[in-house]
Amino acid sequence: MSNIPAELRYAKSHEWVRLEHDGTAYVGISEHAQDAMGDLVYVELPEVGQTVAVADETGVVESVKAASDIYAPVSGEIIAVNEALNDTPELVNQDCYGDGWLYQIKLADKADLDGLLSAEDYAAQLEEDA
Amino acid sequence: MPYIPHTPEDVQSMLDAIGVARIEDLFDEIPAHLKAGALEKLPDGLTEMEVTALMAARARQDESAVCFIGAGAYEHHIPAAVWEIATRGEYYTAYTPYQAEASQGTLQTIYEYQSMIAHLTGMDVSNASVYDGASGLSEAVLMALRANRKSKASRVLMPAAVHPLYRRATRDIVTNQGVTIEEVPFCNERGITLLESLAPYAGEDYAALVIAQPNFFGCLEDVDALTDWAHANNMLVIAVVNPTSLALLKPPGEWGSGGVDIVVGEGQPLGVPLSSGGPYFGFMCCKQQHVRQMPGRIIGRTVDMDGKPGFALTLQAREQHIRRSKATSNICTNQGLAMTAATIYMSLLGADGLASVAGHCHANTNLLADKLCAIKGVKRRFSSATFHEVVIELPQSANLTLKALAAKNILGGYSLAPAYGFDNAMLVCATEVRTQDEIEQYAAALAEVLA
Amino acid sequence: MNREAQLIFEVSKAGRRAYSQAPKPVADDKLNDLPAALRRQSKPLLPEVSELQVVRHYTNLSSKNFAIDKQFYPLGSCTMKYNPRGANRAAMLPGFLKRHPLAPESHSQGYLACLFELQEFLKEVTGMKGVSLTPMAGAQGEFAGVAMIRAYHEARNDHERTEILVPEAAHGTNPATAVMCGYKVREVPVNDDGDVDLEALKAACGPQTAGLMMTNPSTCGVFERQVEAIAKAVHEAGGLLYYDGANLNAILGKVRPGDMGFDVIHMNLHKTFATPHGGGGPGAGPVGVSERLKPFLPTPIVGQDGDSYRWLTDADLPQTIGHLSAFMGNAGVLLRAYYYARALGREGMLRVGEYSSLAANYMLKRLQQVGYTAAYPDRRASHEFILTLAKEAKAFDVSAMDVAKRLLDYNQHAPTTYFPLLVPECLLIEPTETETKEALDEFIDAMARILEEARENPELVKGAPYSQPVRRLDDVRAARELNLVFRPGASA
Fold this sequence. Notes:
heterotrimer; A: CATH 2.40.50.100; 6-stranded antiparallel β-sheet; B: alpha/beta; Aspartate Aminotransferase, domain 1; Aspartate Aminotransferase, domain 2; 2 domains; 15 strands
């Protein structure tokens, strides 16, 4: 069973969101997603300053055998991206909920979070897909 | 039954193993009314001797003339070793190197090819080749649209002095995606693209400027100024170059202050015969930062599980078999054999040999132009410096003149009437294989035709 | 340094040259008219080697390849049949090799005659009404085909069609091509028996449908039995039907795409017409069309005027989708295909589908007998078939890739692995009509032994291959630490 931290929210497309106190949020991909991809060799990140809507494409994670789009789980403005991934995409494999975060977003509408899954619901979805 | 090896006993034992009585039974899932008839319009099969004789007679029909046409395809001497090795069964009958362990020959050859082309163009990286120069330009245009993040526009600037057949193929391919190609005029007197012709586009949003060196007329563009202008206007630069010329001319990686972004060109001059237009190969290089936007196969050097060096396909996530509708292109082949020939050719010639070839082409073309221009009413059409190829203006229709020359078995050049409306102008070329005798014969024949 | 993988650059030595390979240098004063600012300042890094060194290096490299001329090469969907040597010699006759692509028609009649006849032959074997030979590969043929579909709808002022339907088992080129032609892609599911889900297809058809791209026999290695119903559904919605000729070898001489209702097709001459794969190209992907798409064919095409041949131009075909290359596409490949067509003739052509299907069905049956699982056990194989190793993957932790790699140790080229994507742990096997029964049996025996090895010593299979110049390569390193160009001093 893959690790699904209870304090995060999840998109059906396997991104996670961590809400910070200042109204921003970090976004990454779940352990299940990184495991399914295998060793990542490249992560394409969005541009800082870009404004995105829910489900917009905000980058790509790439392994030797697959490439998968990253969809914005919430709307808002990208305020930071994880530059370390340019040289060390394997951080996503090693620590997908920590050092392997993808980008930070300033939420346009907190209500977007309500459209996401709880850890429990996400675990149920994985169960169903299996 | 050519090439089918089975004896009647083989066939019977296979049918028995399957459990059917006849081969026809294997097609019992196909609705009967869809079955093909007897293919009556096909001729009877022929033996190797018969087909060879038939094709040899056809080949001889086309063989008699001496060729002074260039226009994107050039007759060069090809060392004997080039195609003797390239058509070895191990290269000729191998598939795309998906099983890397059983394809190290092809993979290493491609890596060496990528290295040679990157050094020749002065660029960071190369792919394993695309179909030809013209379709390569269309791929470069689409690539520039993806790679230029500063540009939102779906349009590029294309000088009219770029090869008309390249412009046509590029237009026909990219307009399906709604891409616009804006043509930039050339200077009618000098035959090159001037900065003042670009001035109206300054500050406008175009993804890229295409620069051909030499351009279609053989004229040498001021590539440094054009490159810097494009970069100053947030455009990428796509260079279109003749690989032979790069032994002598400044490589695109050094144009202007930053070098160009993408290079494409026709690889045929590097050891590939004229062969009616193909198979040739398009070479394609770029700066490192754009490599993930490059279409086509790319080979990387790596190690195996024992740490031994080896080669493998890499960056495959760009390609159609993984990325499907989001791939950089639908291309799945490279022009492997032609590319292999070019790798052997470049190894045999080296930098000095290639420079000799380029030098002779240039000297021979100048000699030809001088001889032709000694005829009354014949002159060079443009005043710019040229390389390897030159536009000649005649006192009469180029189409008619070329027809009269062809009747004397001289293919005298390529008429500029259809593409440019220059009714009396033709593009001529004499590579290193044209002898002084042949050049003089041409001049004499032209004098007769014009007399 | 590992000598076996030594690069040509690493045997290079400053000052060495293959003197007889290039003309003697020209005098510097012949180059004086080239402006100094446009001249190259430093020599490009190309090898400095002798003629023998080059010949030996590339001969040795070639020997590291598997090839049809050396091994059985049952790559599914690739039709690795024998490439006749006679075709190569004929295409490399001096008259063909020296013909300039822009030579006038007066000096091209021999070449044009071959191409014209090839066009006619391809029409006859496919049942299509017009053919253009010019696309340079299957993918470019697909591009031409879908561009014609677009041109057709636009010529009718039908601008609402934005979507191309593609079965989910399709080759990746199909969706990639549709996008290159400016379309959106909608995938259609495939049933458990390998046929398209007809109801889902009907539901997907509508006024937005520009066309459907499909392969038949499909990428599942079976004949699509509902092809006529599919054609009807797409045509009734106003869409056109595209035939991907990847598997034409299965039905050559038996069924013609034109008779199945397809409007446009491409053929892979490097598969069906035995032209070489060349380590990844060049191929040739001619397109054939029904009557209503003839005006849109890509140029150039060869036409006939009485006894002579000429190029049909934009003046003859004002609605053409245009040119896809500078000249005539892969002319030399077309000549090889012409040779093949003449050598086979009518009776040979009629047998290709029959004997490629015989070999495939024989192998399928025998491999089932030795213990492998067919993906579609209730179906006839076409010219190829799919095994699924899902059971073995679970029981022994041995994957389809492991089996593929182990086959190399038995001197058998691996089948296609992991395609189509919808069958787990699959091997797609295509023997072709040109292999002897003994060759098929050797492969079957090797597969039987590998299955035993997987049961008894799975680590052996998982570590394969052992007999090749290298063992499994580090793809992750290749992608993370890109080394695409040799640079002296950089680490290997």
